[in-house]
Design goal:
This protein has helices at 105-113, 128-132, 306-310, 361-375, and strands spanning 4-8, 13-16, 23-25, 47-48, 52-57, 61-66, 73-74, 84-85, 96-98, 101-102, 120-121, 124-125, 164-167, 170-175, 182-185, 191-194, 201-203, 224-225, 229-234, 237-242, 249-250, 260-261, 285-286, 302-303, 314-317, 324-327, 344-347, 350-353. By secondary structure, it is mainly β. It has four domains: 4-70, no CATH class; 86-146, no CATH class; 165-242, no CATH class; 262-327, no CATH class. The strands form 14 sheets. Strands 1-2 form a two-stranded antiparallel ribbon. The protein has a two-stranded antiparallel ribbon with strand order 3-4. The longest helix has 15 residues, at 361-375. The protein is flat, with a radius of gyration of 38 Å. It starts with a strand and ends with a helix.
């Protein structure tokens, strides 16, 4: 019955009542759940203190649900047991998930309920003036925004709501900041500046494009890329993928949008990468096989050197040098059988049958007799 210390109250974590904190009685021996009528809820909470109401909580029986003050509080969901404080103008709210994609009607309703003005405009609570004019999108100040939404016209990202990217005069569904290269690692190629999936995007003006994942509408995602990149359906959103040079680069599973330099002999490698060679310059990543069921190797794998590759049966190579450490046994091929003699030979214009080795004795006698009768 003690208040919980790990609950979100709408503005932060604080002590809030649990469903039993305000329970005043548990003396109803005949009560049952409405959600699970076959389960007896005897001696669950049966009465609450003032300011709370009895609630048939589907996962735990009857509990006490706080009664919210509609002027300053809201309930995050219909099953929530406590009340959250409404947010002031300019505070974050959640009526828009990303770009122009709205959440469900129910989620949008809770977004509006979370604002003191009663209106969540895009990503921010609107002020009273913006709410009075039913503004669709509000700024972080709470004022109604006059900037272009995703798909609208623009001259720069400053013209787009939330500073989304502006390409070819269209406000995109991704931010301008997401186009900037980042500093970090990419597929094992070490630290450096790497392009994001949007760095090489040149247009976002396709209003009808959808992703193969079927996750929803991808309107105004990236629709064209610069030379050296190709459009790629990445996790339900189109981005630009670098085109790799097969002689010197490979694509790692861990960085599918960029190319990584091929690995030198003795370097650590993994054939779970898109490249079956493990990204090795030699084309052979030696060592234990990757198990998709367990998700790991039974040992380390390293790129083999050219000499190891030339053996044609090397299975494991050394760290640092790439020298072959283990080989599969190769049985020599069986010898070819001796050639058979000709099936027949001409004798006096008649065919003489030459018997082949391996015939049964009885067959041999029969064939000799037949041949002699033919010749005589």
């Amino acid at each position: 019955m003690l208040p919980s210390s790990s609950s979100w109250n709408g503005t932060g974590y604080s002590l809030v009542d649990t469903g039993y904190t305000n329970c005043a009685a548990c003396n109803n021996a005949s009560r049952t759940y409405s959600y699970y009528g076959s389960i007896n809820a005897q001696y669950q909470c049966s009465a609450c203190t003032a300011g709370s109401q009895l609630f048939d909580y589907y996962s735990g029986g009857f509990q006490c649900q706080m009664i919210c003050d509609p002027a300053t509080e809201y309930r995050y969901s219909s099953t929530s047991l406590y009340c959250s404080k409404k947010s002031s103008a300019g505070s974050s709210c959640s009526s828009v998930a990303a770009g122009r994609r709205l959440l469900t009607h129910a989620s949008a309703a809770y977004g509006n309920a979370s604002c003191l003005s009663g209106l969540c405009g895009g990503r921010y609570c609107c002020n009273e003036a913006a709410a009075a004019e039913s503004c669709g999108f509000c700024e972080s100040s709470g004022a109604c925004s006059n900037k272009s939404q995703v798909g609208g016209s623009c001259n720069s990202s400053a013209d787009c709501y939330e500073d989304n990217a502006c390409l070819s005069g269209t406000c995109c569904a991704f931010s301008a900041s997401s186009m900037a290269p980042y500093h970090g690692t990419s597929g094992g190629s070490g630290y450096g500046w790497w392009d994001t999936g949007y760095t090489n995007c040149t247009a976002c003006n396709d209003a009808s494009r959808t992703s193969s994942s079927g996750s929803g509408n991808d309107q105004y995602q990236c629709s064209a890329c610069t030379a050296g990149s190709q459009l790629f359906d990445y996790h339900g959103g189109f981005q630009c993928q670098s085109i790799c040079d097969p002689a010197t680069e490979f694509r790692s599973n861990w960085a599918p949008l960029t190319c990584s330099n091929k690995l030198t002999s003795g370097s650590s490698c993994s054939t779970s990468n898109n490249d079956a060679s493990g990204g090795c310059q030699s084309g052979l990543c030696g060592g234990p096989q990757y198990s998709w069921s367990s998700g790991y190797y039974s040992g380390s794998r390293f790129c083999c050197n050219e000499a190891a590759v030339g053996l044609n049966n090397c299975t494991s190579c050394a760290s640092g040098s790439g020298q072959c450490l283990a080989q599969t046994s190769i049985r020599p091929p069986p010898p070819s059988p001796p050639p058979y003699p000709p099936a027949s030979s001409g004798v006096g214009g008649k065919a003489l049958l030459l018997l082949r080795p391996g015939c049964p004795v009885s067959s041999t006698v029969h064939l000799i007799s037949s041949a002699w009768a033919f010749l005589t």
